[in-house]
Amino acid sequence: MNIIEKKYNGKSVYYFDEYYYRIAIKLLNNEYKEIKKIKDTKRNLVSLIEIEGIKYIYKEPRNEFRIPQRQFMTFFKKGEALNTLININKMIEEYNIYDYVRPYLAIVKRSKNFINFSAILFEYIADGEELFDKDLEILVKKMQKIHDLGYYHGDFNPTNFLINKNNEIKILDTQAKKMGITKYRAHYDMLTMQENYINMKYPYSKTPSYFLALAVKKFKRLKWVSWIKEKKKKLRDKGWKI
Q: What band does 127 get if pLDDT is binned at 50, 70 and 90?
């Protein structure tokens, strides 16, 4: 699949199917119906919307341009919206991993090559429900398959997955990034799930990458580290550029 980029009113629109450029124009011209605002914080906007009778999930990942160090990195990188569009469609089309909620288009605006706005339009899973404990072992095996292909989730916990009436598990809230030469990211994924799935049998050998991921997890849980992190979030929400 070859990605297409077109400019519209100072923004770059990225897509694979020409149909979605027309949808992007309607989106940018506010020609849509917002059915439900799922989340609206300084960090993220997520809405259920309808365009031409079809429902979609619309997301703006705002942290990317409100946190200075993250915005700085956008000078060198594609950014969350475009990465998500490319990576997940690659997983679906090249690796036949149909479990991902598919992104259809990404919109990115840059100023002096730094991202200052981005958005993603996803398919809507109409009958999706949260997972139950009985589904978690299936989820672990599914993520192992993805790890074996060299990719990771980044926030591997039950809230980032849905199950539909056909018992198909759908993967949410990931950029589907490629792992490095070690399995550090795979271990970090599994340790995140283990925090939510207490009866989980750890699926990997405990290599040095495992102990590094475990040490990072424990460091982040230290009270003073958590306090600093929470304080920074509150200050950012007040407009501080830190």
A: confident
